[in-house]
Amino acid sequence: MPIHFGSNIRALLLALGFLWGLTGSLVAEEKPPAPANSGPFVFAYFNTGNAGESQGLQYAWSRDGYKWTALASPNGTFLKPEVGGKLLRDPSIVQAPDGIFHMVWTTDWFRHGIGSSYSKDLLHWSPQEYLDVMQDFPGTVNCWAPEIFYDAPSQTYLIYWASTIPGKFPDTEPTGEEFKQFGTRASHRIYVTTTQDFKKFTPTQLLYDNGYNAIDAFIVADPEHSRYVMIIKDETAYPTAKKNLRLAFAKTPLGPWSPSTTPFSPDWVEGASVLKVGNEWLVYYDAYTRHRYEGQKTTDLENWQSITDKLTMPTGMRHGTPLPVTEVILQGLLSSSKAP
């Protein structure tokens, strides 16, 4: 016996059918989420020369990690250095889980502390602080290229840098550059302090010593292999200069770290930094004798391919750090750079 629907029920079914079609249409037209590590990106750096060191923080931006365009601050800098020796070299920025950006930098060629500040938008920075990280090591010559790394599992920030302490590593002092004013040679090693609130810091300790002069460490997490990766510069100067980049690995960012690999970079480079774009690791470095930025890419940290010919970088760009940002942050920077 056939079933007959009343007019009200037929209207209801028609309405439900319309809504179902509309919902399906909406679902079909919804944009898929952006893939991880897809950008946009901002590169914090400093400009070459004495004027560039004193001028302060600079930014470039990119959507693909290859073509970088400088952002022009109305004041010539996004942060003018005011602490330590009032220089800003080697800026390193990391974004915390709460969205705050934390930055550290080199304040002078020969001091035993570093600069620190934080920002919500990369435009407005907190009052600068001088962190006297090597105060417990008398005679420390320098604190170069500090980097900041956030370790999510421990909810801890690592701040690490290169320092020379005369007499601490006598076996490698003959291999280092001469510091005439200190009557010694470089014996750089990587040191670290940690913090969870930027108020209390753990005592500084040695982070990496592989038996040679080393500077410009850069740590990244490699969760696919349950490890951490450090890029390190072999700063050996004598009897044969090395000046190249190597890798070390560890299960935790505080180590113990493995012996370093053979070099993966050309010689005469420094200031390595890493950006994950899609499934590729892009490694940028300052080829300071060739007066340009160079780079390589890899998917496995074993097989490398040069990307130097594909890179477009701002003129005069020196050692810095790239990081992913939201579109809101980028648009704020772009608007600021267009301001009169």
From TrEMBL:
It holds the Pfam family BT_3657-like_N. InterPro entries: BT_3657-like_N (IPR055133), GH43_arabinanases (IPR050727), Glyco_hydro_beta-prop_sf (IPR023296). CDD domains: GH43_Bt3655-like (cd08983). It comes from the Bacteria. Residues 41-140 form the Arabinosidase BT-3657-like N-terminal domain. PANTHER family: ARABINAN ENDO-1,5-ALPHA-L-ARABINOSIDASE, ARABINAN ENDO-1,5-ALPHA-L-ARABINOSIDASE A-RELATED. This is Arabinosidase BT-3657-like N-terminal domain-containing protein. The lineage of its organism: Bacteria, Pseudomonadati, Planctomycetota, Planctomycetia, Planctomycetales.
